[in-house]
């Protein structure tokens, strides 16, 4: 992919070139990143291979070998040039110069280049030790950046990416401690291999202390003391976070509709306990056939404890599934089995009434339409002017602004009509009841599940009372009285 002429004119600095590559030509930048990652891995692997075949007792007895040494020098020249280019691309150059990655580059690339120049004069320069194991921090940085690319992030759930970041950090810290312990103990006492150094680090961190492998020299023992202090203070918070991730993994399960045999709908958004209660109770009270449909609540953040308790009730336990995920990611839509879903409802952040939340909701809708264009979408937008973006494919759009304006105008024209309409909006398929028949309360309840308008026979003690008094009495029981059917079938 080549840069277009109009984009070249707007590039005034190397930093701008990097931004254009990342934002508009991410395929090129991700390819460069993968190549750099492979070179970093090759550099560390060559160091490990040389260390295992060379029992170095001092920093001048690390025999690289001619071919390996030349290869390491070439790689470090490339690393140094890349570091210079990134330095000129950074806005805060002082901060980047003092960063840990820059220090690692100064401790590895610069000495290796100096030894490479010296080897042109005397071959003894090929036997000097360089801490190339520190390049694992550049490997860790490459992997973390790679996980944030859209080409990778869309196929991975957030919890998987967080676990990968945790493992990369753990790997980098352990490799640093293992390599440093090996060189300190080998140069101040007897030689220790990388395997024994790794074994010693794990045993020391686990506070087991078998005693079969121990540091022999005073500097090595001081290093082990520092390692234990740093490991306990640094690794414990990481493992605590890993335990939290393990608990959250319960909500990262995959819903299986068995190829559509278990119908379900997806509700995406950030909900409170009251909102979830209203949504699912009205959903299952609307129509009898809805009782066989599962609800998948997909939220970008962890569900509140009140919501977890609510869906754990016997009535909802096997009907409502909690998931953490983003509908903009194919991996999360696949976990929710969106291909076999009957519909998806996008609510967004229900706690915010700002219009800019519609933009994020529209982006989610575009991503879902790209994932499965046949999946019916129902959106709740705040502003009516945003409906045009999704009207071509959305199955339905509810506009909060339009509803509020209509209710406000109707409330001014006909006072008292707004509460009546709000209750009528909860009606799905009203059916007239035959009030002349006598039914027990179970039959009345079964029939009332089909709609939210109840037609009940009042007792003789209520006859003769005014409509206002009856309405007040029912209102105390959270029931809205909207009419009275006389014995002649007329509605008052």
Describe the structure in your own words:
This protein is 54% helix and 7% strand. By secondary structure, the protein is of the alpha/beta class. A 6-stranded parallel sheet has the order 3-2-1-4-5-6. The protein is elongated, with a radius of gyration of 34 Å. The N and C termini lie far apart (74 Å).
Structural features:
19 helices; disordered N terminus; alpha/beta; 6 strands; RCK_N; Helix Hairpins; 492 residues; 6-stranded parallel beta sheet; Rossmann fold
How would you summarize this macromolecular structure in one to three sentences?
With 492 residues, the chain is α/β, with parallel strands linked by helices. The protein contains 19 helices and six strands.
Q: How many strands appear in the DSSP assignment?
A: 6
Give the neighbour order of strands across the main sheet.
3-2-1-4-5-6
- The overall pLDDT average reads 77
Instruction: Determine the structural class based on helices, strands and strand pairing.
Output: alpha/beta
Instruction: Give me the CATH superfamily of the largest domain.
Output: NAD(P)-binding Rossmann-like Domain
User: How many helix segments?
Assistant: 19
- Model regions low in confidence, pLDDT < 50 over at least 5 residues: 1-15, 426-437, 444-451
Q: Would you list the SSEs in sequence order as H and E? A: HHHHHHHHHHHEHEHEHEHEEHHHH
Membrane topology: Multi-pass membrane protein
Pfam family, one: Slo-like_RCK
Catalytic activity: K(+)(in) = K(+)(out)
Main location: membrane
């Amino acid at each position: 992919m080549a840069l277009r002429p109009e984009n070249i004119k707007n590039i005034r600095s190397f930093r701008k070139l990097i931004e254009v590559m990342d934002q508009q030509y991410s395929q090129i930048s991700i390819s460069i990143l993968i190549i750099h990652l492979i070179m970093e891995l090759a550099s560390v692997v060559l160091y490990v291979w040389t260390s295992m075949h060379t029992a170095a007792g001092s920093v001048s007895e690390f025999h690289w070998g001619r071919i390996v040494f030349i290869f390491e020098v070439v790689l470090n020249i490339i690393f140094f040039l890349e570091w210079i280019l990134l330095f000129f691309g950074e806005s805060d150059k002082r901060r980047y110069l003092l960063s840990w990655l820059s220090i690692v580059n100064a401790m590895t690339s610069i000495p290796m280049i100096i030894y490479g120049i010296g080897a042109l004069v005397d071959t003894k320069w090929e036997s000097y030790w360089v801490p190339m194991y520190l390049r694992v921090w550049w490997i860790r940085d490459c992997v973390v950046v790679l996980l944030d690319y859209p080409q990778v992030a869309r196929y991975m759930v957030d919890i998987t990416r967080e676990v990968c970041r945790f493992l990369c950090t753990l790997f980098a810290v352990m490799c640093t401690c293992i390599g440093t312990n090996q060189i300190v103990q080998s140069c101040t006492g007897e030689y220790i291999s990388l395997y024994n150094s790794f074994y010693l680090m794990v045993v020391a961190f686990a506070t087991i202390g078998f005693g079969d492998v121990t540091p022999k020299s005073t500097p090595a023992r001081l290093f082990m003391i520092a390692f234990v202090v740093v490991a306990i203070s640094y690794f414990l918070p990481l493992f605590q976070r890993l335990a939290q991730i393990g608990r959250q993994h319960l909500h990262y399960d995959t819903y299986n509709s068995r190829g559509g045999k278990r119908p379900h709908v997806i509700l995406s958004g950030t909900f409170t306990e009251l909102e979830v209660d209203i949504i699912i109770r009205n959903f299952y009270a609307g129509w009898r056939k809805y009782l066989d449909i599962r609800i998948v609540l997909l939220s970008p953040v962890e569900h509140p404890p009140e919501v977890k308790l609510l869906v754990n009730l016997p009535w909802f336990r096997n009907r409502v599934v909690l998931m953490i995920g983003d509908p903009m990611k194919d991996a999360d839509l696949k976990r929710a089995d969106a291909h076999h879903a009957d519909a998806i409802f996008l609510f967004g952040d229900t706690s915010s009434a700002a219009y800019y939340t519609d933009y994020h909701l529209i982006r989610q809708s575009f991503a879902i339409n790209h994932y499965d264009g046949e999946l019916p979408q129902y959106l709740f937008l705040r502003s009516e002017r945003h409906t045009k973006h999704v009207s071509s494919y959305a199955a339905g759009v509810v506009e909060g602004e339009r509803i509020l304006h209509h209710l406000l105008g109707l409330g001014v024209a006909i006072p008292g009509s707004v509460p009546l309409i709000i209750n009528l909006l909860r009606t799905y398929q009203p059916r007239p009841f035959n009030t002349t028949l006598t039914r027990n309360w179970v039959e009345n309840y079964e029939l009332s599940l089909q709609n939210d308008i109840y037609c009940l026979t009042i007792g003789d003690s209520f006859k003769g009372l005014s409509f206002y008094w009856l309405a007040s009495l029912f209102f105390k029981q959270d029931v809205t009285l909207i009419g009275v059917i006389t014995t002649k079938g007329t509605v008052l």
